[in-house]
Design brief:
By secondary structure, the protein is α/β, with parallel strands linked by helices. It has ten helices and five strands.
Length: 223
């Protein structure tokens, strides 16, 4: 079955461009559009999309609050949120990730990258491009722990190997890349990631990456 996509952006021309790209793919179907966060909430309830392509800056309700309501505990449906950002202008992307977005993508990303990102998010994975993640978190370094602050108690529930995996997730590595780095199988990595998410009460890899930085486990700019 085709992946059902809802386009949310206050610029009709951009929505039209995204629609043309996505409708050229046999496994993607654009089921609706919205020009702001409030319209997005209505459309999500009515159309039950699999993925919401969400702009950040919009009138009436921005993408952060819309994401929070779409993915929060009262969520009504399976929708995942993929945030669109211009990076240099959007200072709320980290908030969107905290709110439950499954990843983010630059608005000027190539068409094939947009299509692949939607497929990845629809499959339940996180869209974490390492280079963009690092630049984004470095931009917010002054708002995140220095690495010298006390480590949260919840972090002590992880085993040493789970901490290693969390650090690599925060760097944006895929399961295959983590497996190669730690000389274990992908299945083992998936198991470790699952344990990390369960123990820390996190929804997905994106929230795990944000947690790693916010807790001070990983410092912005560190290798």
């Amino acid at each position: 079955m085709a992946i059902r996509v809802l386009l949310v952006d206050d610029q009709p021309l951009l929505r039209t461009g995204f629609r043309m790209i996505l409708e050229a793919e046999q496994d993607l179907a654009v089921v609706g559009e919205a020009g702001d966060g409030l319209q997005a909430l209505d459309q999500v309830r009515a159309l039950q999309p699999d993925v919401v392509l969400m702009d950040i800056r919009m009138p009436r309700m921005d993408g952060v609050e819309a994401t929070r309501q779409i993915t929060g505990p009262e969520r009504n449906g399976p929708a995942k949120v993929l945030v669109l950002t211009t990076f240099d202008l959007d200072e709320y992307v980290v908030e969107a990730l905290r709110a439950g977005a499954s990843g983010f993508l630059l608005k000027d990303a190539p068409a094939d990258e947009l299509v692949q990102a939607i497929r990845v998010v629809a499959a339940g994975e996180a869209m974490l491009a390492p280079s963009i993640t690092r630049r984004l978190l470095d931009k917010y370094a002054t708002h995140l722990p220095s690495g010298e602050d006390p480590v949260p108690d919840t972090l002590h529930t992880l085993t040493d190997r789970e901490v290693e995996v969390l650090k690599l997730v925060a760097r944006g590595l895929s399961n295959a890349e983590i497996a190669a780095d730690l000389f274990v199988s992908e299945t083992t990595v998936k198991t470790h990631v699952g344990h990390v998410l369960t123990k820390l009460g996190l929804r997905d890899r994106v929230q795990a990456a944000v947690y790693a930085y916010e807790s001070g486990l990983v410092r912005p700019g560190a290798q």
